[in-house]
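User: Sequence recovery, please. Input:
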């Protein structure tokens, strides 16, 4: 089975209304639709752009204000998924449960269903500056094109959680990310390659570009989308089906062949999934 995926290098810039945000998201979705994509991935924290709208005093909104946009966010992406016929991973959006904030990836199905995955590993900045809370469980999602998982940015740096997703059947990990400098970017990028090799899966990765001058901790972004494969003969030697131009507003698109994953798991130059030593360490299944 094959599926076509697109990943958005989302340009963060100051806006003045939710409608402007909606138009920008619609532009990317329509572009991916023109490419015939079946899945489109937006980056982590794209809705922080809404904080730049500001309040009646001209001051940027705070992270505490973002959950107020949840209904509009869900309505927008649910509508785009339905009209485009695509599965949309709408980046992440900050939601409130009780007194707690969570950074949550959302999967919008063409039939109107919405599934979520809270970020499981929270960076020090998210904790100290935004008082974010950790998600409490991993889910995988069945689609017409196979089983996928959504792991956000820092999550991909932990091999155990990706191994768990693969043990539950996921062949593709969608990783929305947001990094502000080269160090953070390369941590996420390099570990994405490692996870693809370890588990013989695809990783679809993207991040934010641009800047929000009025929004604290979103003033700088360093991002590049990549569609990452295992490193074996059926795939490109560098394990890259596609990658964007660093820090440019753009979309990258590629076809994922799930049959090739089964081929390398059975007859690859290395068979890292089959050869794991579950007698020595847990399978996390």
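Assistant: Recovered sequence (285 residues):
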């Amino acid at each position: 089975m094959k599926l076509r995926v697109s990943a958005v290098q989302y340009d963060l810039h100051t806006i003045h209304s939710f409608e402007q945000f909606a138009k920008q998201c619609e532009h990317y979705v329509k572009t991916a639709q023109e490419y015939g994509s079946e899945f489109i991935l937006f980056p982590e924290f794209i809705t922080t752009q809404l904080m730049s709208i500001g309040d009646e005093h001209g001051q940027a909104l705070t992270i505490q204000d973002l959950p107020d946009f949840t209904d509009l966010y869900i309505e927008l992406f649910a509508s785009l998924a339905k009209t485009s016929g695509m599965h949309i991973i709408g980046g992440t959006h900050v939601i409130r449960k009780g007194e707690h904030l969570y950074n949550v990836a959302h999967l919008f199905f063409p039939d109107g269903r919405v599934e979520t995955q809270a970020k499981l590993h929270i960076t020090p900045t998210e904790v100290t500056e935004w008082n974010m809370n950790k998600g409490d469980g991993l889910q995988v999602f069945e689609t017409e094109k196979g089983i996928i998982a959504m792991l956000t940015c820092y999550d991909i740096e932990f091999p155990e959680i990706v191994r768990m997703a693969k043990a539950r059947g996921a062949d593709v990990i969608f990783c929305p990310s947001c990094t502000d400098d080269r160090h953070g970017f390369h941590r996420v990028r390099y570990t994405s390659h490692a996870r693809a090799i370890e588990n013989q899966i695809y990783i679809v990765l993207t991040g934010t570009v641009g800047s929000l001058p009025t929004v604290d901790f979103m003033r700088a972004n360093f991002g590049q989308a990549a569609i990452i494969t295992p490193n074996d003969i059926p795939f490109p030697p560098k394990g890259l089906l596609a990658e964007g131009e660093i820090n440019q507003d753009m979309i990258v698109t590629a076809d994922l062949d799930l049959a090739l994953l089964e081929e390398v798991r059975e007859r690859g130059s290395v068979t890292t999934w089959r050869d794991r030593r579950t007698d020595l360490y847990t399978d996390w299944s």
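The first helix runs from residue 18 to 34.
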